[in-house]
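Give me structure tokens for this 87-residue protein.
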Amino acid sequence: MPEISRFFGIIIAMFAKDHVPPHFHAKYGEFKATFDINTGELLDGNLPRRAIRLVQDWAELHKEELIENWVESQKNNPDIKPIEPLS
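Here you go.
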């Protein structure tokens, strides 16, 4: 999994050449979910309510970086950058 951030046990990843809409993946223990970059909406999967809120707060803070990574992820040989975790 191409990890771009990790905080409070939540792993955030983005895959190269992934399908639209622009999104990222979150994993927390046995839970997995996909979030829309533009809206922060939970698109698929499930996380505990507190983890969803943490992911959405993080995504709101780093929306511009997520968009830049998404654009980069659609290229051949993408250079997807790490993003600061919540602290």
